[in-house]
Design a protein that fits this description.
Elements (H helix, E strand, L loop, with lengths): L1 H7 L4 E3 L10 E13 L2 E15 L4 H13 L4 E3 L3 E3 L4 E13 L6
Parallel strand pairs: 1-2
Antiparallel strand pairs: 2-3, 3-6, 4-6, 5-6
């Protein structure tokens, strides 16, 4: 879900890290998962997701696009304040949210 969201918004993105980051706004995301179930079937996954948005210049358009997407689902999220990373010479905004997926099992 995270990657498809960022791809649909045309934000360059990778899970965990870029070896060579793009020279424009980009995102790195993380998807920590807890898997549950019953009757010997793990079918429920809780995704604890983090999207780190990196900007060389403040990019309100992409920030708004991410927030509009999350609001349209609707999905509650936490947006951390913009931080200047002096060692990287860019801005960072972190979005955190949680969502649940459920796998359907065919018990025939």
């Amino acid at each position: 879900m995270i990657q498809s969201m960022l791809n649909s918004l045309a934000v360059p993105n990778k899970e965990t890290r870029f070896i060579q980051p793009p020279k424009s706004t980009y995102a790195v995301w993380f998807d920590n998962q807890s898997v549950y179930g019953c009757d010997n079937f793990n079918v429920i996954t809780i995704h604890d997701a983090t999207v780190e948005l990196y900007e060389y210049v403040i990019d309100i358009e992409i920030e708004n696009a991410i927030e509009d997407y999350l609001n349209s689902i609707p999905l509650e999220y936490v947006k951390h304040e913009r931080t200047w990373l002096n060692t990287e010479s860019l801005y960072q905004i972190i979005y955190e949210f949680e969502y649940i997926t459920k796998e359907c099992i065919n018990n025939e």
